[in-house]
Amino acid sequence: MTKSNLSIRASDSRHTPKKGIHQHNHYEILIIKDGTGSHIVDFEHHNIKANQVYFLRPGQSHQFIPNPDAKFYFIAFDQDDIIRPIGFKQFHFFQSFYCSGPVQLDEIESIIKHVSDIDLELQDPGPMQDVLISGLVSVLLIKIQRKFVKFASPQKIVKPDLIQNFNQMIDSPHCLFRFVKEYAKALHVNPTYLNDLIKKETGHPASHWIQKKQLNLSKLLLMKDDQNLKSIASYLGFKNTTHFSRFFKAQSNLSPSDYKKTLL
Predict the structure, then answer these.
(1) Backbone angles phi, psi at 125, to 5 degrees
(2) CATH 1.10.10.60 residue ranges for the chain
(3) Burial letters for 179-203: b for 16+ Cβ neighbours within 10 Å, e otherwise?
(4) Facing residues of 31 across strands?
(5) 7-152 CATH, one of 3.30.40.10, 3.90.1170.20, 2.60.120.280, 3.40.50.300
(6) What CATH number matches the domain at 161-262, 3.90.960.10, 1.10.1200.10, 1.10.10.60, 3.30.9.10?
(7) Looking at the chain, which residues constitute the CATH 2.60.120.280 domain(s)?
(8) Cα 138 → chain centroid
(9) Nearest to 259 by CA among 225, 214, 219
(10) Which residues, in sequence order, are CB contacts of 199 under 8 Å at separation 6+?
(11) Residues 145/99, Cβ–Cβ less than 8 Å
(12) Structural contact between residues 77 and 140, judged by C-beta atoms closer than 8 angstroms
């Protein structure tokens, strides 16, 4: 196993929550054992509570603000940290169509036990550590998936490959298509068919998910002092700053400049 981001942090001296909204290039799971506080994920605010779990994909933005009474665990890892040929496509809690916010489970002690086993191996490594940790992380994710399907999924998770492939493109920070027709071309389907199918399965057309992603990316870029409107518009595929500003205001009810003022 190559060097990874695998780490575990808890509500003790090992973890001081990072200030401000930020991104990671790895996967993270936040497990709330008890207590209060808030968690901002892709600019949506959530109140934390006991037995709650958050799942973060690479590229998502978040800010965790626990109160002193909060008891929690973070585990961060890369895709290479799980046993092949298990793929992340099988873990529905890491896909936005199935999980866009916190998940409330029946209990989380069994999950914490698996996290503790991984932590013990990280603190006291032995022979074949990479193989053992890979197995432990894989077991953790499989156990969470079983709980997610049983206690948290709002509907039976059986989706056509086309929908899952579109979801993967939406969730990828590297896919910056702006229009349904671009996604449809990449997926080798008719744009109208893709839009209608996604609406039937998720309650929202494909365009809704594309615009939601573009708005989140826009907010992240506007937070950076070294990014001006022209560079942001160009990066996101808009013809000019006027088109970008019109899109941003239609989606957020604020102009880009007014939004930047709220960050001060």
Answers:
(1) -65, 150
(2) 161-262
(3) ebebbbeebebebeebbebbeebbe
(4) 53, 73
(5) 2.60.120.280
(6) 1.10.10.60
(7) 7-152
(8) 18
(9) 219
(10) 205, 206
(11) no
(12) no
Q: Which pTM does this prediction carry?
A: 0.89
Torsions phi, psi for 48 (to 5 deg): -80, 150
- The pair of three-digit structure tokens given for residue 125, joined into one six-digit string: 């490594």
List the chain pLDDT tens, one digit each, 264 residues. Answer: 445 679 998 887 566 778 889 998 999 999 999 999 999 999 999 999 999 999 999 999 999 999 999 999 999 999 888 887 777 878 989 999 888 899 999 999 999 999 999 999 999 988 999 899 999 999 999 999 999 988 776 555 556 789 989 999 999 999 999 999 999 999 999 999 999 999 998 899 999 999 999 999 999 999 998 889 999 999 999 999 999 999 999 999 999 999 999 987
User: What is the three-state SS of the chain?
Assistant: CCCCCCEEEECCCCCCCCCCCEECCCEEEEEEEECCEEEEECCEEEECCCCEEEEECCCCEEEEEECCCCEEEEEEECHHHCCCCCCHHHCHHHCCCCCCCCEECCCCHHHHHHHHHHHHHHHCCCCCHHHHHHHHHHHHHHHHHHHHHHHHCCCCCCCCHHHHHHHHHHHCCCCCCCCHHHHHHHHCCCHHHHHHHHHHHHCCCHHHHHHHHHHHHHHHHHCCCCCCHHHHHHHCCCCCHHHHHHHHHHHHCCCHHHHHHHCC
